[in-house]
């Protein structure tokens, strides 16, 4: 009997060691406040069109992780430096980023580009990008340094009238529209719906704008988890399987 207990303990220690070797490390998943894609709930949890899909897959795959609220430029630095195990939630895929990190399978695909426009412009959903940009009396507002897709960006570069621009977040841009600083701005339909639902100082202010879709807009971009190269390949593989 005296030999059985040490043998049993040795087997237990060996089992634990094997399990520890097979365990995956905790990865920090960074998000920014940008409803309706990602936002912090009053209880401290995180929700949104992109985050909800991700969290369901993480639960199915039993992947260790933690969520952190992090500005987008800080996220990029963490991914490019690869000092820790870090991923950014909801990033678009492109060759420059692929060279510096790795991407998960798709978390969410944006709807085709739309626009928020003052109702008295008389525009409808059959409007093309060129028609909107060529109308000289319609004051355009854009987010500074932001890409709205290759097609819209190319047409915007040909526009003779310089648009109003701001580096502020999209809700601030909406307030600029409401303050009569501009007549329209391009926007993702998901974000446009959320913006129109926000309370305003005037009960009729939001009603003076309509959410439209460009008739010639290409499909929206796909959003992914963008991770640094220090994140184990197995961790991402298990996530991709759970996203199927």
TrEMBL record:
Domain of life, source organism: Bacteria
Signal peptide: 1-20
Keywords carried by this UniProt record: Signal
Protein's name in the database: Polar amino acid transport system substrate-binding protein
Organism: Inhella inkyongensis
